[in-house]
Design goal:
GO terms for molecular function: phospholipid transporter activity. It is found in: Cell inner membrane. This is Intermembrane phospholipid transport system permease protein MlaE. The chain is mostly helical. It has 8 helices and no strands. Helix 1 packs across helix 5, helix 2 runs parallel beside helix 5 and helix 7 packs antiparallel against helix 8. The protein is elongated and about 65 Å long.
Length: 258
């Protein structure tokens, strides 16, 4: 019995300690961010790197998700004689929910693991320690640019996912099944609200970008400086980022669309 409570206490202590270190690191990154405005090239280079890593998988996945939405949406709406509303169903599903969530999960699996491995290997190679010895703050020089790059890239990738998904739904619904093209686009334009749907989807993807990118960078920064430690850190990144995205999605959906 004593061993059980000791294990629980150690787990709680480890969780609280990790939460405190993560909060301190997050606040430090925010405090160091204004200085990056003078060296925005650091962020823009990382935006290209992070976005380029995920662009192909985001676009291809968005296309196939659009295909599936077109098929499933048509067969469901056809039961009620409402197949002309297929464009609205596809657009709302992607803009509100699937675009931000699926792109964030893909971003975590592709770019997030890459960021964790990169930071972890820099730590294992003592590059971060060398920066500190040269009076260069690794949080400002390495972590902060990558953090803001992920935050900027995530809404862009989510928008690409949604746009390609709508195209996929159009190809299946209009070109393959035969839904009227005019009805497809007019229903979409008339039913999708920029403020209630598009803007809330952008806000979701922005918050997901903050969560996923910070988790990836924190896991890399706190990883044990060994190959096994870096491998475990990348695994934790995928698991924790995915859970964070799904949990935040529920909370944000309840707040935005209740």
């Amino acid at each position: 019995m004593t061993g059980f409570f000791t294990t629980i206490g150690a787990a709680v202590r480890q969780f609280v300690g990790g939460l405190g270190r993560a909060t301190r690191m997050f606040l430090a990154v925010l405090a160091l961010s204004p200085a990056l405005l003078r060296r925005f090239r650091l962020i823009s280079d990382q935006v290209f790197f992070v976005g380029n890593l995920s662009l192909v998988i985001i676009a291809v996945s968005g296309l196939f998700v659009g295909f599936v939405l077109g098929l499933q949406g048509y067969y469901t709406l056809n039961r009620y004689g409402s197949e002309q509303a297929l464009g609205l169903l596809v657009a709302l599903s992607l803009v509100r929910e699937l675009g931000p969530v699926v792109s964030a999960l893909l971003f975590a699996g592709r770019a997030g693991t890459s960021l964790t491995a990169e930071i972890g290997l820099m730590k294992a190679g003592e590059q971060l320690t060398a920066m500190e010895m040269m009076a260069v703050n690794p949080l400002q020089r390495v972590i902060a640019p990558r953090f803001w790059a992920g935050v900027i890239a995530m809404p862009i990738l989510a928008a690409i996912f949604s746009a390609v998904g709508i195209l996929g739904g159009y190809l299946v619904g209009v070109q393959l099944i035969g839904v009227d093209a005019g009805a497809f686009w007019s229903q979409m334009q008339g039913g999708v609200d920029v403020r209630a749907d598009v803007l809330n989807g952008v806000i979701k993807s922005f918050i997901f970008g903050i969560a996923v990118t910070f988790i990836a960078l924190y896991q890399g920064f706190e990883a044990n400086p060994t190959p096994e430690g870096v491998s475990r850190a990348t695994t934790r990144t995928v698991v924790m980022a995915s859970l964070a995205v799904l949990g935040l999605d529920f909370l944000l959906t309840a707040l935005m669309f209740s």
